[in-house]
From TrEMBL:
Pathway: Cofactor biosynthesis; adenosylcobalamin biosynthesis; adenosylcobalamin from cob(II)yrinate a,c-diamide: step 7/7. It is found in: Cell membrane. This is Adenosylcobinamide-GDP ribazoletransferase. The keyword Transmembrane applies. InterPro entries: CobS (IPR003805). It comes from Haloplanus salinus. The keyword Membrane applies. GO terms for biological process: cobalamin biosynthetic process. GO terms for molecular function: adenosylcobinamide-GDP ribazoletransferase activity; cobalamin 5'-phosphate synthase activity.
Amino acid sequence: MLTAVRGALAFLTRLPVGGGEAGWDAFRTTPAAFVVAGYVVGGLAALPLLVPVPVSTAAALYLATLYLVTGVTHVDGLADCGDAAAAHGIDDRRSALKDSRTGVGGVLVVGLGLLALAFGALGVAGAGPRVAARLVLAAEVSAKAGMATLAALGTPGHEGLGSAVVGEAEAAGLLPVVAAVVPAALLAPPGSTPALVVALAAGPAVSLLVGRWATNHLGGVTGDALGAANELARVVALHVGVVAWTLW
């Protein structure tokens, strides 16, 4: 598992963890490694929310820390999927995925995604440091659980990075994923358990929807679809977590 986690961190972040070929091979067949990496990313991204600064500053620092840790690979996947969604026909959509230029569809989707994430961060930061940090952690774990779900249950698309990850693990490999997610729910401060549970459930749900879209429109789950699922799942998990915390 340790080797698989190193591979996951090398694949999902910019952290200098090494990993190499052994880590990559172990990661591809260990979906739970996605979730463990989510704890690392979420924990680092949540640190600014514990600093006694204005809510808007904490939200901005969260965004900056998040993308310093993860880089822009997954955002690029979201942009490519946005361009593909704007194209007509599976061949044009696949061409859009491979085009290094970003079109109007990609700009629109990334812009809306970052705006939604920023508003979600503002809402989370307003919940107070203890709740905010745990919601951010839950959202990241949820997003990575979504990626793991998609990798285990999805059908690989065209040959590439996605096909090297998707379908490499059996559906039974999701049992350790569920077990790895449970501690994030147990970290809930009094009164915030429903918010964390809803946030943790959002990632897999969003990722399965992205997977269905990718299968129907791209011919399978690609690396870009995995990246898009991660970005969208994080946004939705943050927002539903804040809504649940506010209402309950």
